[in-house]
Design a protein that fits this description.
The protein has about 120 residues and is mostly beta strands. It is about 0% helix and about 50% strand. The chain has no helices and eleven strands. A hairpin with a 6-residue loop joins strand 4 and strand 5. The N and C termini lie far apart (about 40 Å).
Length: about 120
């Protein structure tokens, strides 16, 4: 069973930065894609950033220019660098991995990010 473990969340102020890490129990290149999703109360989980095995990256429009997704092969982790954070970035962030399907089959436990105004 694949395990994804997130770390790096917390409470910050507007304009601050955070870096989220997702450690995978399987080789990250074994997945077709990995990504970060965000969920807020009463709303569906939404894609924030994703990266395919081939390195194609996709961002939610509202985070373009502020967030960067990357991979650390030596640590077998996927990172999400979040700069210039805004209160609307607040939510629970989930790491995801897609192997065969069109959507994620594996999820982390989620980590809270809170940006105060």
């Amino acid at each position: 069973q694949v395990q994804l473990v997130e770390s790096g969340g917390g409470l910050v102020q507007t304009g601050d930065s955070l870096r989220l890490s997702c450690a995978a129990s399987a080789r990250i290149f074994s997945f077709n894609a990995m990504g970060w999703y965000r969920q807020t109360p009463g709303k569906q989980r939404e894609l924030v950033a994703s990266i395919t095995r081939g390195g194609i990256i996709n961002y939610k429009d509202s985070v373009k220019g502020r967030f960067t997704i990357s991979r650390d092969i030596t640590q077998n982790t996927v990172l999400l660098q979040m700069n210039s954070l805004k209160p609307e970035d607040t939510g629970v962030y989930y790491c995801s991995a897609t192997s065969l399907g069109s959507g994620p089959e594996y999820w982390g436990q989620g980590i809270q990010v809170t940006v105060s105004s």
